[in-house]
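User: Hello! My lab partner asked me to get a predicted holo structure for this protein. The small molecule is zinc ion, SMILES included with the sequence. Please write out the C-alpha cells.
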Amino acid sequence: MNKIVKRVLIGIGIFVGIVAIVVGVFLYKFSSETSKMTPVETGKISEHGYAIKDEFVNMYLIKDSLGYIAIDAGKDLKIIETELQKLNIKPEEVIAVFLTHTDMDHVAGIPLFTNAKLYMARNEEKMLNGEKQKMPGYNNSISRKDYILLDDQQIVQIGKHKINCILTEGHTSGSMCYQVNEKNLFTGDILSLHNGKLGHSVKFFDLDHDMTTKSISKITNIPNVEYILTSHWGISKDYKYAVKDWKE
Ligand SMILES: [Zn+2]
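Assistant: Hello! Below are the C-alpha cells for the protein in complex with zinc ion.
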C-alpha cells in the first residue's frame, strides 16, 4: 500500500477512535448523572397543579378556567402524550407554555401544544442562535419561532394566574424561574434538592456553573414562596427550610 494512503488511513483511525472515546465518556456521564435524579410521579400535586414525569424530568401544568399553563414541555413527545391521557388532559387545552430553558429534555412536547403561546427568557435566544453553546457545534433548538421573549422581573397574567419571571442564568444563558401566584416557585435546572435542602446544579450540564450558583442565591429570599418545584429533583413544600442553610 502506498505510504501516503497508509498514513491517511491511520490518521482517520485515530480520529474515529478519539471521537468514539469522547462520545462514550459523554454517554456514560450523562446516564450516571440522570440516574441520580428524583422526579415525582405523574399526578395531581395541589389544588390546581399537576406534575408529569418523563423518565428523569418533570414538566408541570397549572389549571386555569381558560385552560392549562405548562412549565416546560418534557423530553419525549410520545411519553408526554401518554402521561397527559392518564390525567385526562388534552394537549389542546394547554394555552401557554413557559420554558425554564431550551435544553432538549424541556422542549420535546412543544408540538403537542398547538393552542399554546410559547414564552421564554430573552437571553435564552442565544442558546438557539449559537451565540452560546454547551458543546461546540451544537445549538439548542425548538420547533417554533413564534415565541414571546421575557425579561427579568416581568409579570405575565394568564387568566387568574400571575407569573413573575426571574432571570437566573448559568445553566443556560437565559434560564428562568417562574414564581406563580406568589407561593409556587418553578426552578428548572438551576438547583437540586436533597432531603428538602437546596443543593447545587449538576456541573456537567451547566453552561456556566459558577454563574448558576450565584443565580441560586437570587431566589433564596423571595417573600411568600412556599413550594419549590424543580425539573429533576422533585418538590419541596417548605421553602423556608429548603433555603435556610444555603451557601454558595
Ligand atoms: Zn433538564
